[in-house]
Design a protein that fits this description.
heterodimer; A: 123 residues; mainly alpha; Helicase, Ruva Protein, domain 3; 2 domains; 71% helix; B: 173 residues; alpha/beta; Glutaredoxin; two-stranded antiparallel ribbon; 5 helices; elongated
Chain lengths: 123, 173
Amino acid sequence: MIKLIKLILLILILILSFQKLLYANNNSLLVNKISKNLRCLICQGQSVYDSQSDFALSIKILIKNKIEEGKSEKQIYDYLKNQYGEWIVYDPEFNKKNLVLWIFPLILFTFGGLLIYRKVFIN
Amino acid sequence: MKKNIYYSILFLFFIFIFSVFYLGLDKPNSYTPNESSNKNLPTFASKELFLNDEFISNNIIKNNQFTLVNIWASWCAPCRLEHSLLMDLKAKTNINIIGLNYKDKKNNAIKFLNEFGNPFEKILTDPDGTISIELGAYGVPETFLVNSKSKIIRKYIGPLKIDNISEIIRITK
């Protein structure tokens, strides 16, 4: 009987510890994912994930704290953007300033398509 | 005639692209942080360096007085350079100077203050650097001038220079 209780306890402890481990792993995966999308502002050309600078290390701790507070991924990006400007994220947002950059290839593409169409099918 | 229009449009287009790139050459292609700031001082809790007691950031602001928040560390060489300027500022004005000790060991920080003097009214600690991130700082040294309504009105990235000090004196007078 005692053996059985011991066994059950052991299994319980194992399950609990693994759960803790899994949970921690999940969080660190999210930290990695977010920090890969952030530019290290004082060591350019590197992401926050890659960099070992004091700035990047602190940002990683901050992301971890925010996740533990229950903040979503988007909230964390928005927070950092508010703090350091849009430059910190690698993925540029669609706005008035870069409108031309987004639209221009589309214009060229349609224009070029039209030219080819005229050359091939009309002549 | 049609061909002429076509070529002139092409030529203008080429000139346009060329001038865009040519003007772009002058622009610096490295990131320069934004030095003007109109944010409020964030609320954070931190331990005091000497007393080790918890301190809420709102309490560092004094009524009718400007506060200078200076991020420093004993291991940071430029902090040594600007330290004499901070001592000067302390002697000349009644500005409320708050230190934020960045990723430092307590013993080293105290040794540093004993050697170079202590211009700070209060020293808060930032052992993992997250408070500096919440302030929007890039690293050490960095200094924020905060008015009595908790608004950050100036941000100095890197060591303070004599020009910065005279600007601070001008603003706070």
